[in-house]
Amino acid sequence: MTVTIKNEYDIVKMRVACRLASEVLDYIAHFIKPGITTGELDRLCHEYMVNEQHTVPAPLNYQPPGYPPYPKATCISVNDVICHGIPGDKKLKNNDTLNIDITVIKDGYFGDTSRMFIVGEGSVLAKRLIQVTYECMWLGIEQVHPSAYLGDIGYAIQCHAEAHGYSVVREYCGHGIGTMFHEDPQILHYGLTGTGAQIRPGMIFTVEPMINAGGHGVRTMPDQWTVKTRDHSLSAQWEHTVLVTEAGYEVLTVSDGTPDKPTILRAC
Ligand code: MF3
Ligand code: CO
Ligand code: CO
Question: From ligand 2's centre to the CA of 38, what distance in Å?
């Protein structure tokens, strides 16, 4: 495992890339309503990135080993889709939940963030899952300080999710990020306090828990990207990119539209 420690120059560049990724979410939020397709949302994001921000959408043609090239600029995961939903001609309808995951490249640096949205009012169950998942992400982030362990992040997330009867997806995790999309270390969203590598100042990684209302099982669709819950239960995810500082952490994926940190945060 080779974890890169970022220098002051890297950090300045990462702040910009991460803010731009977050600003794509601010921009697209206004277009989410019944009848629009996920493909149209993707096209709007893509045009905003390329024409307004002069950023590059990192997902487009991204091809990790064993995968076909990813065909779109964003990932949009609706209802029981956990992650890597490919935008297409599916029209959004009232009460749908969706995650929009944006990764931009600016001057060679990657910023990665995602938020949940609800079309129309949303069911009580959906709102609760989305809120608890948001708390999970923040409880994970709050563990981040030098000399803490990576396992502390996963433990806090898993505890909170399971206390609400939800489950943590095991197959996908947070990741180091910088001049590459996915770097070491892996940030598991489950685990045990005091396990794994120590957290060090200058690390930059994502915290991006995927939480299912039902069981943690996943099923990958024939397109080889779209991942759904095995039991068709609802799934939610939030993602921030975080810098480890001497004092603790700095969330880099912030912009005017970033939701506030939850007020009541209690790890198990
Ligand atoms: N943005 C996702 C993450 O948080 C990765 C998407 S890979 C893609 O790590 F190819 F599907 F875009
Ligand atoms: Co990520
Ligand atoms: Co992402």
Answer: 20
Report the alpha-carbon angle 122-125-128, nearest 5: 95
Question: Which pair of tokens denotes residue 15?
Answer: 């702040």
What residue type is 95 in one-letter code? N
For a substitution probing ligand 1, which of 112, 175, 253 has the most ligand atoms within 8 Å of its CB? 112
Taking the model in full, what pTM does it have?
A: 0.98
Residue of 229, 130, 111 whose CA lies nearest to 170: 229
| pLDDT at res. 30 | 98
Pocket (CB within 6 angstroms of ligand 1): 59, 62, 70, 75, 84, 101, 103, 112, 206, 208, 225, 239
Q: Kindly give the distance from the C-alpha atom of residue 159 to the centroid of ligand 2, in angstroms, as a whole number.
A: 21
Dist CA 152 CA 112 (whole Å): 22
Residue 203 structure tokens:
């690390």
pLDDT at 264 over 90: no
Query: Going by CATH, does the domain composed of 8-251 fall within 3.90.230.10?
Result: yes
Residue 117 in tokens: 């949205």
Per-residue pLDDT, 266: 79
pLDDT at site 174: 99
- Spell out the residues 6+ positions from residue 240 whose beta carbon is closer than 8 angstroms to its own: 113, 137, 141, 206, 207, 208, 251, 252, 253
Kindly give the residue spans of alpha helices, DSSP state H, lying in the chain.
Answer: 8-29, 38-47, 124-142, 150-163
Q: Tens digit of pLDDT for each residue in 42-58?
A: 999 999 999 999 999 99
Residues with beta carbon < 5 A to ion ligand 2?
112, 206
pLDDT, one tens digit per residue, over 199-233 is 999 999 999 999 999 999 999 999 999 999 999 99
